[in-house]
Amino acid sequence: MRHAALDDLSPVEDELRGHDACFFCLGVSSAGMREPGYRRVTYDFALAAGRTLARLSPGSTFVYVSGMGTDAGGRAMWARVKGETENALLALPLEAYMFRPGYIQPVHGVTSRTALYRLAYMATRPLYPILRRLFAAQVTTTERIGQAMIAVAERGAPKRILGPADINAL
Length: 170
Fold this sequence. Notes:
There is one protein chain. The chain has 170 residues and is α/β, with parallel strands linked by helices. The protein is 45% helix and 13% strand. It has helices at residues 13-16, 35-56, 77-90, 115-124, 128-134, 142-155, 164-169, and strands at 21-24, 61-65, 95-99, 103-105, 139-141, 161-162. A four-stranded parallel sheet has the order 1-2-3-6, sandwiched between helices. The chain has a two-stranded parallel ribbon with strand order 4-5. Helix 3 links the parallel strand 2 (61-65) and strand 3. It is globular.
């Protein structure tokens, strides 16, 4: 079923009922965006999913992919909106986990839809082994994020906000 209004999931609730986990990975780059548009995608869509899951399956797991540097009191618009989103999700009756990856190395053919990111990944791909050794606490891969999300859905995690080192450890 196709559904276009991601801030109102009521028409697809029957398809969402009975699930015990949600991996919320939807996001956009804030580059060139004004706050209302960025807030709609980042905050409104995530909270619509979180509130719907909390109502249909209270206590289920909700994994939100946020970002390193997220801060509800931050000066940067993206960090502030993501921080407010995290806080609102953590307040829901869910087992909510905030994934804050730093540098993410795409693997297994994963590509970004953002042209600038694609160029950056192409340039850094040969350097990734060095980056991983020098900045292990700040880098991860798309594969490790996926594995960590599954691990959190199965067993939880020792804390609710997880950085790259935490993600890699899972």
